[in-house]
Amino acid sequence: ETVRHVEDIVRIATYWLPGRFADSDLPSEGLLATVNLASIWHDSLAEPGPPAGLRPEHVGEDQARRAAARQAWRLLEVLQCVEAAAEVAADRTLGDSARVRLVVAIE
Fold first, then answer.
1. Which contacts of 16-21 are long-range, i.e. CB under 8 A and separated by 24 or more positions?
2. DSSP label at 25?
3. I need a surface site. Which of 50, 73, 78, 102 has the fewest CB within 10 A?
4. For the chain, how are helix, strand and coil distributed in percent, rounded to 5?
5. Can you give the pTM of this predicted structure?
């Protein structure tokens, strides 16, 4: 509960940064991506797993499929979290055409 509260406070602070300081959009997006990745990690720690001592062949095909779907969903969440920061970084360092290519590659 406390961790979630701190994450929310930092997430809200990232919305104030871009308008307050010059060239603060990249640090703001980076901080927001970091907070969101930490949130995903915390959520994954709280997920219940199969009981201890069970091997994958004992878990069953249905649970294995759900686990694979959860991993795919988590990967998509991670890509979504870092997409904006990567887009801003690519635009700053490599230009607009590189930013567009990066967005297309991520999508």
1. none
2. H
3. 73
4. 85, 0, 15
5. 0.65
What is the length of the chain? Answer: 107
Distance, C-alpha 52 to centroid of its chain:
28
Cα 81 to chain centroid distance, Å, stands at 3
* All residues at 6 or more sequence positions from 74 whose CB lies less than 8 Å from its CB, including other chains: 40, 44
Residue of 104, 85, 93, 92 lying closest to 34 (CA atoms)? 85
pLDDT of residue 103: 87
Burial of 85 (0-12, 13-18, 19+ CB in 10 A): buried
φ/ψ bin of 54: left (φ > 0), alpha (ψ from -120 to 50), beta (otherwise): beta
